[in-house]
Design a protein that fits this description.
212 residues, alpha/beta, two-stranded antiparallel sheet
Amino acid sequence: MTKPLAALVNLNTNNILSIKRALEFVGFKTEVINEYSNIDRFDIIVLPGVGAFSKAMKRLEETSLIKFVNEALNRNKDFIGICLGMQLLFSESPEFKKTNGLSFFNEKIQNFKNFNVSKKTAIGWNQVKFNKSFFDDEKDFKIFNKEYFYFVHSFFVDNKKKEYEQGTSFNGDKEFVSVIKKSNIVAFQFHPEKSGLLGLKLLKATTKKFFL
């Protein structure tokens, strides 16, 4: 059986080796993408990232990667965004300077420093409360719901709209969106690839249709 192929969009903001290894561990072949490529070659597109929103958008805009990512989103290609890769899907971020995002979702990114929270930069393990509807199998919901995953972020999606919200977490008393899903588009604020065996299992559960 031929392994499914995952495209890793290279934002040059972090080392993507960890997500590459994680995807290969759960059964994918991977290819790092630095410029536009034929989207039909790939089974799934992955937009990872740690770093500044403005720098990542500049990288996308100065290369043909923005065309690649927008084509994936507009064609409802299987897609996973991780951390900064989730935030880029939204309309705007104030990080360093106000910067427009990909606007796949309309809401804006917020800064924890403007809220009464426990951590202005949330680094470490945090609980994720999933919606049952995120999983096709109720057994998966029981495995992952209210478990802890690894986060590194100072900015977040405020949960004013519930339509695509599939998981939430707290920073002190402030609830924020940690999982979103719209059809084949899935994104996590946390890092499943840095969340140990449970994170690898979540990647496997999220992509299980490729291995049936």
